[in-house]
Specification:
Blueprint (H helix, E strand, L loop, with lengths): L9 E5 L8 E2 L17 E2 L18 E2 L1 E5 L13 E8 L4 E10 L2 E3 L11 E5 L12 H5 L4 E8 L10 E9 L1
Parallel strand pairs: 2-4
Antiparallel strand pairs: 1-5, 3-11, 5-10, 6-9, 6-11, 7-8, 7-10
Length: 174
């Protein structure tokens, strides 16, 4: 049995401690719209820009972390074999992943699936990928503290000052 693609019902944001000056917040007024491709999208308040600071010249501007929770899954299998995530985003050809990670008990766990691919629709995980969380259970998935942690950054090879927009986030459980 496979659960259908399911959007979150709760989205929150935060920055790393003492990093607010180089993190760009998301427009909190649009959080409820990030559920379907044809609805209003969630955009940044400001733009991500490639920042060259001495002595390190590869320090990148990043977004605040977004926590997607409240997935009201239907028809979950009793035994979990994999988790798949679909992110539809307007990356402007220059905004890439920094963090794409599962949250269990309100803590980021397992592997970070972030990559530099700039496709507008990206899939992470699969029917047989438990994101290096071997004990992932049905009880974890229905817990209100389960979710997805997401953060974007400016692409390291393409300096820019472009914003990012998220059209939808969905999870599917196998």
């Amino acid at each position: 049995m496979t659960a259908v693609w399911t959007p979150p019902s709760l989205i929150s944001q935060y920055a790393e401690t003492s990093a607010e000056d180089i993190h760009i917040p998301w427009n909190a007024l649009e959080f409820s719209a990030v559920s379907a491709f044809d609805q209003q999208r969630l955009g940044l308040n400001g733009v991500l820009s490639h920042i060259a600071r001495s002595p390190k010249h590869d320090t990148l501007s990043k977004t605040y972390f977004l926590k997607f929770q409240g997935f009201n899954f239907n028809n979950l299998p009793d035994s979990i074999s994999g988790v798949e995530v679909k992110v539809c985003a307007d990356r402007r050809g220059r905004v890439t992943d920094d963090t794409v990670q599962l949250i269990v008990n309100n803590t980021a766990v397992g592997s970070n699936k972030a990559n530099l691919n700039l496709d507008p629709i990206k899939y992470y995980g699969s029917a047989t990928d438990k994101w290096e969380v071997p004990s992932l259970s049905k009880a974890d998935l229905v817990n209100s503290n389960f979710g997805l942690l997401l953060r974007f950054k400016s692409h390291p090879k393409y300096p820019h000052s472009d914003p990012a927009f998220i059209n939808s986030i969905e999870l599917r459980i196998y």
